[in-house]
Structure formats: structure tokens, C-alpha cells
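Hi R.,

Here's the input for the 4-O-methyl-alpha-D-glucopyranuronic acid complex you asked about:
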Amino acid sequence: MKPVVIIFLLVFISLSLQAQDGHELWLRNKSTGHVTVTCSGNSPTLAIAIKELQQGWQGKDNAKVVLTIKDDKAIKYDGFKLSPGEIQANTDLGILYGVYELLRRQQTGRPVEEIICNPSYEVRILNHWDDPDSSTMRGFASRSIFWRKGKNALAVTDADKTLWQEYARANASIGINGAVLNIVNASPLVLSEAYLERVKAIAAILRPYGVKTYLAVNFAFPSIIGGLKTSDPLDPGVIKWWSARVKEIYSKIPDFGGFIVKANSEGMQGPHDYGRTHAQGANLLADALKPYGGIIMWRAFVYSPTDKDRAKQAYLEFMPLDGQFRDNVIIQVKNGPIDFQPREPFSPLFGAMKKTSVMPEFEIMKEYLGGTVHLVFLAPMWEECLKSETYQEGPGSTVGRCTDGSIFPQKHTGIAGVANVGVDTNWCGHPFDQANWYTFGRLAWDNTLTSEKIADEWIKLTFSQVPAGQAASTLYTTDWTEKFLVPVKKMMLESREAAVNYMMPLGFHHIFSMPNTHYGPGPWWAPEGMRKDWTPPYYHQADINGVGFDRTRSGTDGVSQYHEPLASQLNDLMTCPEILLLWFHHVSWDYTMKSGRTLWDEICYHYAAGVQQVRDFQKIWDQVELYVDKNRFTIVQTRMREQYRNAVIWKDACLQYFQQFSRRPIPYDIERPVYNLDYLMKNSDRYYGL
Ligand code: GCV
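And here is the predicted structure with 4-O-methyl-alpha-D-glucopyranuronic acid in place:
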């Protein structure tokens, strides 16, 4: 084709791109033909399945699809069997999931072949950190979709119902089957009669989409709102109180899923306040929920003030209790031992607790990864965790397999994602943050999926411009693929490593300035009298000899919480993966890295590389302008410019701060700092985001 024709075509495409506000998420498909659906059952869920097929059908015109419900042992939970003309499942929800898979295949140009799809986990749940006062903690996409403030806070409007229905549909389309409606720092309001009525209304909308409703409760509710003198889990009055509350909830919501509890953590009360263990605490609630089939997700995010090693605490508290929990308790463990840092090793609890159900907790909302300003695709981070080798039962004992029932006979399996959803029109703030919600669902369904495959799907579903009546898959022309799909996918796949590079490379962790919402750098931040383990110097331990937290056998011995041969591999400076070096070792500034550079130089080059990567993302994004509608293009472009400025701030702050200890020059082929350290330190309470 002649260049003039190409330019004409591109201009034509771009003019015809409709403004997208992002509200439709990845569900933008419209049918391109007629399909006749026959179904062996009848229920609200099946009605949705039929409607979705008819509205989104992009297969052969006048095709026939049969939906069959019949018991099949090869199908697990709400899995399904797909074949060109039939979807078969044990449950109505399985049929709905099969429909979404079939439509996804049509839209992304994948064949509809005979295949059985079973979910990796039984419970695939979002945790909303939403407060009944409508705020969302660490949420950057505005207020809660569930809770409102003000005089009519509890009135259920048609707009509420529409939003909840759209939310439920989005979740169902990627296999998410549960939602905790309130933050783990639970407000007593949620168990009040009026708020439970709202929960009931939400549950009614989520139900046909197979999304079960759960609540976060505070362990001390019996004394906070129940008028009891204690919340001791062994106290008969406390046991009775919880049973009565649970009974009340189930009378309103018969399929209520259960509770999540944050206990003895960050000021929340828990069984330790009464001289009891986590197991005694969790079992109290588990017993109350058991008659109704409910479960309890008990969080292992615990850490009391320490100047030893915070990373070891959860393991030390929970391992001795392995086997003491009721079978409807699942211990919910953050992916890493500290707190959702840009890179952490996996939590040593995965695979180690062999007689207890354990579920991973991922943070979809990017509390420590640039909020809704930075473009960071989290699939590679979660893939890294799920595919990490624990060696607990020999090679192949990955975190994924240790938690999904493949290795240990867990009664329940699950995976949780801290949601990034708010009332912003596009749900997540940054258009690319939708990809993280999408990824969580897809990985919860199949924990062996690759980041590449997920990114490919998401880009196709989210950015293809489909004229009415045309199947999406016909649009994946060579031009669109080469000029849009390939570069955007590459950018997404590199984006997490870029963030690690400009924030915390080589195993650095928690060097944020705490007051500015875990956003900007603050390796110096250590106010007088502050808990040591809340200050970055505790984590980086920089001195004139070197930098890094010594968790080797001669340090805090954190390495020994891992199984052999991993423990020895991490313990040895020569075999510890360099991406985690400063997590496990205090290393001399002159230490020779695999690249042949000194550690100091390597740190400098990583920060510089991170900044350069964001620069390159800007170029990629500007080049795809003609393939994206103006609205989404501009939001991403504006945010990326800020991401670049932030990356420079991170580099300038960290290199100049650590240089005071390393006393070595920043290699001269690296861009020189543009901010003075003084200025950055004085302004470290400032939020640098948009
Ligand atoms: C809900 C970190 C976050 C807190 C969060 C806590 C948790 O500390 O900064 O906002 O509180 O984790 O996971 O409980």
C-alpha cells in the first residue's frame, strides 16, 4: 500500500474512533449475527447466560448453542465443558462462565475447541477496602460503589442497582465469585440492622451473577457493639453473641459467604488480647458460620512493633498453629512477607502450613506502585509469586500448586484480591488499571496463565474498535497487531519491572515516605520516636560499608523460614537471586555483581534504566495515538508524563540519599540528578501524583 493511502486510512480510523469513557471495561462486544440457544434449565443465572450469548454472539450467523446441565465428575466446582455447539456444566453458574469463555474466544480470535475448564480456586474473591462512610482506603478511583454518605446514605436507588449489576457482570465475566463489601478495619456499622438491609439489597443484585457477599468484621464487636464485657473467644456470652449475629445475617442473606477478619494487627483487637491464639479466635467464628456453610478468611497480616525482623512475624505466629484451625477457616496470606511491595519474595507460609487451608492475597489497587497515576501491569508480579518454587514437597511445589489443592488436601481453596474499584466512570482511575482487575479474575480462574496471554486478551477486548455488525476478531489486522497490540503489550509486560527499577531495585523494600500515602520516595524518613519498623532506614540498613537487610543465618535467619534447597540458596550471597539481593543480604558497596559492576554502580544503572523505560513507554504510547480514542489516549498520556517525573524523583532521591553512604560517584554516563536532595527531603510529605 502507498504511504498516502496508509496515512489516509489511519486518519480515517482515528476520526471514526468513538470516545470511550472506559465504563464498559472489557465487555464491549456486540453481536454480529443471530444465535439460537436451547437450555435444559431455567433460572436467573441461566437467563443471563442466554442474554449474554444473544447480545454478544460473534460466531456464525444463525448458529445453534445448547446449554446442558448434567453431573460430570470431570467438571470441578463451577467449571464447564466447552465444545463448538454446546456448553455443559454441573451448575447454572458453570454455564454462565462457559458463555463468557466462548464469547471471549470469539472476540479474541481463538478457536472454540472441545475443552474442560475448571477453576484453580474455589473462592475467587475481591476484598473491598471500602468504609460504610463511603471512603476507600488506598483506593484511588474515588468513593465506594457500595456505600454512600449523607442523609440518604442507605436508600437503594436505581443508579445503585445498575452500578452493582454492572460490577457483578464484570466479575462473573472473569470468574470472580465473591466480594467482601467493607474494609478489614471493620466499622461496627456493618452489623447494624440498617446496614445489613443494604447488604441484603447488594447481595440480591450480585447473586444471579454468582458473586457471593461477605463482610469484614472486627473481632472485638461483642464488646464494641454487643454490650458485653469481653470479646474473649472462649466466653459463652461471646459465643452466643456471634451465633445470634450470624443467624440474623443468614435470615436476610441465605447464601451469605462468611467473614474476613484482621485480628491483632495494626491496632485491631484479636484473640491475643484475651490470651488466646489465632486458632481459637478463628474457630469461634468458624463454628458460628458452619451450620450455614459459611467460611472465615483469617488474615495472617500481623506484625507487632519490632526492631528484629518484621518479615518473620507472620510465620512465627501461624506455623505453630498449623492443623488447629476448623476446616471452614482459610488463612489469608499476602503474597510477600511484608506488605505488597513492588517486589518481595513469596511469603514462607505458602506450602509450609500443610494442614490448614491457605489462600494468597494480592493487592490489585496499586498502593505501593504509583496508585492510579503510574501504568503498572501487575500480572508479571502475581505470575512470579504463583510460579515461585517453594520446594515444600519437592520440585514443582509452586505457590500456586501449594494453595490450589493440587498438593495438599485443603478443604477449601481460595485467592483474594484487594479491589481497585470506585465510582470513577472508568471504575479504576487509570484505564490500564482495569487490566489488573481483569488479570486477578483470570489468574484466580487459572493460576497457570501467562502474563503475555492475559495482556493479549485484555488489549483485544478493551481497545479494538469494532464498527457495528463486524466481529472483533476480523479487526486484528496485521497493521493493528503490529502497530498497536505488539508495542502496547510489550509496554505492559515491562511496566512492573520498570517500576521496580525506578522505585526499589535489587531487593530494596519499603523505602517510601510514609506520610504521602506510600507513593513517593523517603529512604531517609524516620521521625523521632517513630516505630522502627515503620521507617525506611530499618529496611535498607544503609551504612558506609554497604546496604541491605541481613536475613541470612548470621543475620535474622529469615532465610530458614524457607524450605531447602531454597533456604541455602537465599542464604548464600553467590546464589541468592540478584533481584532479591538486598532483601536477604547486607552487601558491600563494592561487591561485584554478575554484570561485573560494583553493587553501587548496579543500583545506579537500575534506577536510570527504570526512568528510561518510562521514557520509552511515552514514545510507544504517543505512537499509538491513531489507534485509541481521544479520551483514553489523553488520560494515559497525561498520567504517563507524571509517571516519568515521579520516576526521576525516585531516582534522584534514592541515588543522592544512598550516595551519602556509598561515597562514590553516580556513573557519569547516567543522566545527572535534576532535583536537590534537600528539596526532596523537605517535600517528602507532599503527594507528587496528579
Ligand atoms: C487495610 C497496609 C496498608 C493498610 C491496610 C493494611 C492491611 O498496612 O497500608 O492500608 O489496612 O496493610 O492490609 O490490613
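One thing worth noting: Residues 8-12 have pLDDT under 50 and may be disordered.

Cheers,
M.
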